[in-house]
Amino acid sequence: MEVSDAPTVAHRVLIMGNGGTGKTWLARRLGERFLRPVIHLDDMHWEPGRYGIARDKAVRDKIVVAAANEDAWIMEGVYGQLASMVLNRVTTLIWIDLPEQECIANVKERGIQGGETRTQFDSLVKWIAEYRLRTNNWNSFEAHARLFAKFSGPKFLLPNREAVNECATTLFGDIGKDPHE
Question: How many domains in the chain?
Answer without folding.
Answer: 1
